[in-house]
Specification:
This protein has eight helices and no strands. It is mainly α. It has one domain. Helix 3 packs across helix 7. The radius of gyration is 19 Å and the shape is globular. 34% of the residues are buried. The N terminus and C terminus are likely disordered.
Length: 214
Amino acid sequence: MRLFDLFRRRPSICDAPSLADFIDRHAAFLVQKGIYEYSRARAGHYAKVLFREQAFLDAAEQSRWRAYPLGLAMVGEVAEGILRPCYQDDRLRGVAALRELVLDVFDRYPVPAQLDPPSWRAARAELAHRLELIGLHPVKRVIDIPETLAPVYFELMPIHEKLRGRDFPTMHNYLKVVLCNVHEELTRAIDVPAVVGALLPGAATAREGDAPPR
């Protein structure tokens, strides 16, 4: 063991459940922080008044739950990009395993009070479709992950569209920055071969740091 290894933290994400918890926590943070911070910025001096209005609180809660599957899709894709070089010849099975893990995270939650069951089922189906698409292209740069989902997310803001102005680029950049932070944190915290081994029992995996198979 090298000297500096003694001072390094051991990875805290070493299995599927701990990765699922990470994805859940950061997906929720990603969408909720954006909704609340954007609403505060748009309300300006009236933010305290706005956040005491029950109608706004209900709208924000509905936005949060409708946006949560988008957060799962984005954070899930960040995780898949980190794991993929270790899949070796089991890329499709690895993508499928990650998709099932993220859908299991979604299934932790009953139908939110702000949504009806058909809407919640439709959100799950759309999430499953987005996760399937991850395996159809090379790993994206993290800043490119929110490209197609940022407009959908922005439309969910609990602020009337006439008051949003030209704020979409700001929201898009917010998603890029937070996802870059998520990528950095996950890269530090995850034991990639251990997690891939848990997702794909019995499969051969590349060592962490190996180049992905061509």
